[in-house]
Specification:
The chain is α+β, with helices and mostly antiparallel strands and 101 residues long. The chain has three helices and six strands. The longest helix has 19 residues.
Length: 101
């Protein structure tokens, strides 16, 4: 599930909901960020409820300030896409620290 680049190591996980599929990558970073389909989180998910759903897994684990998140989503509607991102984010930190499960 993890791969290496020349300088940074990232963790990748796939999340699914209905027909939405999200490929989520997290990279340890001093400056945390959250992008979805190359757009900022607040641009892609227009409502606070959708933003909360998408960030829920990483915020609960307490890793939100340590990682930069990048997600590619496709399929289904916007609500299912937010839930697919949440699912992918719930799977990714487990490979970093099994205690987050």
């Amino acid at each position: 599930m993890s791969a290496t680049k020349s300088k940074n190591t990232y963790i990748e996980a796939v999340g699914r909901r209905k027909t939405a599929v999200a490929r989520v990558r997290i990279v340890e970073s001093a400056k945390p960020s959250f992008t979805v389909n190359d757009r900022e989180l607040f641009e892609y998910f227009p409502t606070d409820a959708l933003k909360k759903i998408a960030q829920e897994a990483i915020a609960t684990s307490g890793l939100a300030t340590k990682f930069a998140v990048s997600a590619k989503v496709k399929g289904s509607g916007i609500h299912a896409q937010a839930e697919a991102v949440r699912h992918g984010l719930s799977r990714a930190p487990v490979t970093v620290d099994a205690e987050t499960r």
